[in-house]
Inverse folding.
């Protein structure tokens, strides 16, 4: 007997010059206006790395290198599971192609942002990464 396979949503902790890129959602209504890590659903037959690189290309217009996963997964409604990977820019400048806005935040600013609930699991780890990343000179 096979159940419905769990679908994975991959999201990026994209860090550049000691700051993290957050994106403001436009949909669904209950999430519109709130900030998330860019990403999306893994398609059948696609690896998580490839899915995340594709989503970042589609949503931000950039090429990225995908690194290690952050600790832990978050169960989302509808049998989805959310997983976050570190990412770095290879080429391009992020643009809000599918979001209403983008914002680069440092550790202090991250704490003030209205993040979607699911992503709050990673706040301590993201703050730690930002505080130990090489900053802007
Ligand atoms: N991309 C992304 N989705 C998130 C985050 N946190 C969170 O709860 N979600 C939820 C919102 C959605 O219910 C689900 C999938 O997000 P999505 O709408 O970006 O995925 P997608 O582009 O592949 O979706 P779609 O075109 O099929 O609607 O994950 C996050 O940080 N990033």
């Amino acid at each position: 007997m096979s159940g419905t396979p769990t679908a994975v949503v991959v999201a990026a902790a994209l860090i550049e010059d000691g700051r993290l890129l957050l994106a403001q959602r436009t949909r669904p209504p209950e999430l519109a206006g709130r900030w998330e890590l860019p990403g999306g659903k893994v398609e059948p037959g696609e690896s998580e790395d490839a899915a995340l690189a594709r989503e970042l290309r589609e949503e931000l217009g950039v090429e990225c290198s995908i690194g290690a996963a952050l600790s832990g997964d978050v169960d989302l409604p509808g049998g989805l599971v959310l997983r976050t990977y570190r990412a770095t820019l290879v080429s391009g400048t992020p643009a809000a192609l599918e979001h209403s806005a983008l914002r680069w935040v440092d550790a202090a600013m991250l704490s003030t942002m209205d993040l979607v609930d699911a992503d709050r699991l990673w706040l301590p780890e993201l703050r730690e990464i930002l505080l130990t990343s090489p900053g802007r000179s």
